[in-house]
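Homework-ish question, so no full write-ups if that breaks the rules, but can someone show me the predicted structure for this set?
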Amino acid sequence: MLAWSILRCTALAGLVLVGTMSMTSVAVAGPDELILRQAGQEVRLPIAALRDQADESFTLYDPFEAEDVAMRGVSFRDFLVEHFGEVPEALAFEAWDEYRVTLDGWDDPDWILVTHQNGEPLTLRDRGPLRLVERDYGDRDLENLRAFNDWIWMIRSIEAVP
Amino acid sequence: MPRPWRRHAGWLWLSLMSFTTLLILITYETRWVYPEIHAYFSQTGNLTGQQLATRSRGYLQEGLGVLLEAPDDEAAREQAAFRLDLAYSLFDIGLYRREYACTESSLSSLETLSNRLSGGDVLTSAELNRHLLGPIGCLTEIEMDQLDRRSAVTSAFVEDTRRHQGVVLGGSLVIFLMGLVFWWMHERQRRHAERATRESLRWMGRALRDPLTGVGNRSALHEDVLAQTGQTMSLMLIDIDYFKQYNDTLGHPDGDQLLRRLALLIDESLAGQARLYRMGGDEFAALLPCHDSCGLARRCEEITERLREAAIAHPGHPENRYVTLSIGAACFIAGEAGFTAGYAAADRALYSVKEHGRNGWEASEGEAALANRVDESQA
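A: Not a homework solution, just the prediction itself:
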């Protein structure tokens, strides 16, 4: 009962607070494009085109879904070579949920830029439209989601970091 | 025979291995264990740094805020639907579905709400509350439970870490002490070996010394000659005339005293350039380097002259009032064979002096032989 009371109070407080929130940080909807940035240049790729190119299919146990999932996508290393001319030293990612991270070590055929899940195109609700996963994640503990922090969801833009 | 350093290398290696192990252990603990802690407990800079449930609730509240602000605005409804989709994606996690019963119904409620917004429906505050109160409550419950779990994991980790640190500290201390003990053993063995070496050298020195006069003995002469192999040397054999009668007349203590005094006198006569040896009861030998010319005659003369000046009384001397010497000398090339020949030549010269009434010298330098006999009138 106490826990439920706390929940109600928290929820109601949230309702009151958000009613007065500013709307200036609202992002524009429409995750149908991927933005690529390199050396000040910006290219917009239609997500639909990427879905058409998806030629890598595999099934793996997705620790976030907690079940086996059939995935389809493109080799991320090939994708980088095609669009950046090489595999950049590091990449800065921006996601639709405003998550930002810079990571290196992408010259690895294990990484797949996933566009489909169980035969359906990824949407925002499926943590799409693009998601980076490792086809082979070795013997990592599947119950420890922190071991999969490198998996990036809802990718909105990718920037080559020199 | 193993070399001394090899004998204590065992302890030294054990000691070095102990300290190296300690260093590796400390390096491992600092370089590899800390990143593991960071990966598990860091709250920032990674995908799951902040709870997915917390982020999902944030988007729900933002979407709700947008709808409450402008419920009739088409753009606001689109923005709210976008936030609800983000909230849904962060909420739709296998772990939440499996562990929290409220997840399925909450996701269903969100889906319904999102569909109505997409369909252009204008929702009242009461409808929004009905659709969102459940998911927000569910997310809060998940957050609280996840925080409890994280606290439990943290406590267990801290306890494990404390135990681990205790083990590491104890292990480090043991390894450190083992290193010290091994080092101490090594040092102790090294000092013992040093002491043994010094003792051996001292005994070797004693074995080559005449204890009465402090000069070398016959073995020392042999070793010194061999050490100068190939060099031209000269050997003087010096015999005290009628030493037995000296002892018989004055007693052995005085005889010993005479031997010490003569050793000193001969050494001084040769200006410290010769090495002196006692070959037997009343016989000394002097070994000198020979450069251009040995000058043996001059050296023999110096000894007899110094002895004459010393005028040491010899009451038992049948032919003189003072102590006299018979000296035979010869040059030779140092080495096993050369020494034998040189010794024989010097001995022949000495015998010749004795045959001619003692108290004199004879030196054989190459083919030349010089001799001097002290005239009876000089006595």
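Now go work out the reasoning yourself. Hint: Residues 125-207 of chain B form the longest helix (83 residues).
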